[in-house]
Design goal:
With 475 residues, the protein is of the alpha+beta class. It contains 17 helices and 16 strands. The strands form 3 sheets. It has a 7-stranded antiparallel beta sheet, sandwiched between helices. A 5-stranded antiparallel beta sheet has the order 5-6-9-7-8. It has a 4-stranded mixed beta sheet with strand order 1-2-4-3. A hairpin with a 5-residue loop joins strand 7 and strand 8. The longest helix has 17 residues. The protein is globular, with a radius of gyration of 23 Å. The two termini are 19 Å apart. 48% of the residues are buried. The chain binds flavin-adenine dinucleotide, (2R)-2-hydroxypentanedioic acid and zinc ion. It holds the Pfam family FAD-oxidase_C.
Length: 475
């Protein structure tokens, strides 16, 4: 047992031997086989500091062929592995549970090609999202995905979690943007579905299986991703609102009035802003309000976009939907406003312990869940706050306490999942299932669907060596 919080038995896997380490060292060299305990510490613990594994070996391959050799060997020896990108995952999927070998994509960071005609980048899976975006910006392109963890997360991790982020509303999910994937199966077999074409209807779309399967079906080694043109004009409005009903109406209006230039629509409640102001000393650009919204426009004509945004804002203020607000166009001000939104997760950690929920809900129920949970939990907590991607119906509900308390967790779960299921929401909108949510998956997936998922897993990874104890439920 590695984690006191979770009752779980180690699978029937082999234990790594000196001979195994020698095999890996012969393949990769000393510098790419890490077995120093202190150095391993950061790879064994997740970003939230909630899930800790006890791996004694981390491997850093550089090529698909090396990944293939590693997996073929591990499969034969029945050694379990945990694929890891930037280790920013929020559901405990990126760290081992026991002594699984960590396979890091940190050195698989080559950009292979940028097709400037179609707007497609082909790269290895370990490219850091922000660096990849900077790379394609030289060609006037952008990566259609952006999130607070961009400075650390890898594109392979993004694909493996099917990350959503701040602009899904505009550019859609990775199931649409990813054009091709190369992945290595548990057997070491390389599956080449790395088409860089926008259209390819030749049979089953196998790459979709690797998007969002969190390293349980294969290790993603390369990706081809559709890159839209980088917008030439960007505006960002930070608004204060009095009621959640006003938030909903403003969102609907923004869609209607800003149309094709709307690129993000985010919502933050007062408690989340207070947390950022208190714990990170970041100051919101307007005074206190029960609710806030960030509305971003991106387009190709500054005058046109500003005019559209101004008309929308004047009407929203005139109708009393929005009571205060500010608009930024300079990069440094926009960056400051975005950091208030993007750093809420970091601010929450400073409260002590975070119980994190990432829920899809029909919009009329969206904030009711936060209010109900607040009432349900009473004075047992430090904070219960809500924010997220309102344009995608995705609520980030976070509860904090000074230290981890099992009784508090039992008060939250499964109530929160039952609440979600009752309104036909999803218990994981964008973070995935990982280790923490796997035994709750039935709240959002039918038993028939789970059975088929298990069959696929058995077909693609018969020894179950790829990220065991993740995604699929125990029963
Ligand atoms: P890791 O954390 O290393 O791994 C995540 C999962 O993918 C694990 O199960 C791992 O085993 C698997 N995996 C990683 N690489 C591979 C690979 N090459 N092949 C197969 N499996 C692999 N998520 C959102 O959806 N939207 C957000 O807005 C968002 N914002 C975030 C903000 C912050 C500050 C943080 C810390 C996280 C945020 N996340 C968000 C969580 C999100 O899942 C991750 O940030 C990101 O997608 C994970 O990438 P990573 O490289 O860190 O993957
Ligand atoms: C975000 O949108 C991330 O900032 C993290 O998905 C959400 O901390 C969270 O709950
Ligand atoms: Zn999010």
């Amino acid at each position: 047992l590695t984690s006191k919080r979770y009752q779980i038995e180690r699978g029937q896997f082999s234990t790594i031997s000196e001979e195994d380490v020698n095999f890996f060292t012969n393949l990769l060299g000393h510098h790419r086989v890490i077995n120093d305990e202190t150095e391993l510490e950061g790879y064994n613990i997740d970003w939230l500091g909630m899930v800790r594994g006890a791996s004694s070996v981390l491997l850093k391959p550089k090529t698909t062929e090396e990944v293939s050799t590693i997996l073929a060997y591990c499969n034969k020896r029945k050694l379990a592995v945990c694929p890891q990108g930037g280790n920013t995952g929020l559901v405990g999927g990126s760290v081992p549970v026991f002594d699984e070998i960590i396979i890091s994509t940190a050195l698989m960071n080559k950009v292979e090609n940028v097709d400037t005609w179609l707007g497609v980048v082909t790269c290895q899976s370990g490219c850091v999202l922000e660096a990849l975006d900077e790379h394609v910006s030289e060609y006037g392109l952008m990566i259609p995905l952006d999130l607070g963890a961009k400075g650390s997360c890898h594109i392979g991790g993004n694909v493996s979690t099917n990350a959503g982020g701040l602009r899904l509303l505009r550019y859609g999910s990775l199931h649409g943007s990813v054009l091709g994937v190369e992945a290595v199966l548990a057997s070491g077999e390389i599956v080449d579905c790395l088409s860089a074409m926008k259209k390819d209807n030749t049979g089953y779309d196998l790459k979709q299986l690797f998007i969002g399967s969190e390293g349980t079906l294969g290790l993603v080694t390369k990706i081809a991703i559709n890159c839209p043109p980088r917008p030439q004009s960007v505006n960002l409005a930070f608004l204060g609102l009095e009621t959640f009903d006003d938030v909903l109406k403003t969102y609907k209006d923004a869609k209607k009035k800003l149309g094709e230039i709307l690129s993000s629509c985010e919502f933050i409640d007062q408690s989340s802003i207070e947390c950022v102001e208190k714990n990170l000393k970041l100051k919101a650009p307007i005074g206190a309000h029960p609710f806030y919204m960030l509305i971003e426009t991106s387009g190709s004509n500054g005058i046109h976009d500003e005019e559209k945004l101004n008309v929308f804002l004047e009407e929203a203020l005139g109708a009393g939907l929005v009571t205060d607000g500010t608009v930024a166009t300079e990069p440094s001000r926009m960056h400051h406003i975005w950091s208030i939104r993007e750093r809420i997760a970091e601010a929450l950690i400073n409260d002590g312990c975070t119980y994190k929920y990432d829920i899809s809900l029909p919009l009329p129920h969206f904030y009711k869940m936060v209010e109900d949970m607040r009432e349900h939990l009473g004075s047992n907590i430090l904070r219960c706050c809500g924010y997220g991607h309102i344009g995608d119906g995705n609520l980030h509900l976070n509860i904090t306490s000074k230290e981890f308390e099992k009784d508090l967790l039992n008060l939250i779960e499964p109530t929160i999942f039952e609440w979600t299921a009752k309104v036909n929401g999803s218990i994981s909108a964008e973070h995935g299932v990982g280790f923490k949510k796997r035994n709750y998956i039935h709240y959002s997936k039918s038993s028939g669907a789970i059975a088929l998922m298990k069959q696929l897993k058995a077909l693609m990874d018969p020894n179950g060596i790829l990220n065991p104890y993740k995604v699929l439920p125990d029963n």
